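Example record

The entry below shows one chain as it appears in the dataset: sequence first, then structure tokens.
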Amino acid sequence: MPTLDRDGVRIAYDVVPGPAEATPLLLTHGYSASRVMWRPNLAALAATRTVVSWDMRGHGQSDSPRDPQLYSHEHTVDDMVAVLDACHIPVAAVGGLSLGGFMSLDFYRTHPGRVRCLLLFDTGPGFSKDQSRQAWNDYARRTADRLERDGAAALGGSPEVARATADVTGLAHAARGMLTQQDASVITSLRDVAVPTLVLVGADDTNFLAAAGYMATAIRHAEKVVVPDAGHAANIDQPSAFNDAVVDFLARHA
């Protein structure tokens, strides 16, 4: 397992080599999960290109710093840049699930020249209305409070979380600093996305169906895939359908 040092915070990542002529793929997991969630997909995806997966700070085998100020969208995007730099990848196909998809959009917003295409799985772009954003942030902070009170039991048993190794202090800090949203910068940036974008969502992921539809409409070069019989972790619930959709998209755009 390679790691890199980000000002004293160790970031863990994996590289599965694939054909060198194709654009590498960077995958970012969802909140409270880890890079382990991509195991059902790595063989199929790496058959076509190099695949890099990593653990966000506070997750998996990356460090969980005790300073809550070390958790933010900015730190996360900078960590993504550092992982790509460590792998000597100047341009990547950038994708993620849930929080990982949101951070992939924020990565494109701040580093568009490093993105060949976007892949957004069971995710949303945030909120344009302050009231909706506040309700989401209240949920994120309640999640942090439950983690500090109840430990890992507060995470529940969703497929992607079941594959994670939890540091509850790190996850609580990540909920407050990374899961919360400060403004509408990501959702308002959708109109500026100029690269091909795959919007994929599980048919049973009711909390994100509307968000997927919104992104597929707002992003100029987007295509939408709905995976039958899949929930929030479409890549785990229906790995073959997920892998086929991703491989087909990447074959055409990366």
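Notes for this example: The chain is about 40% helix and 20% strand. The CA atoms of residues 157 and 199 lie 25 Å apart.
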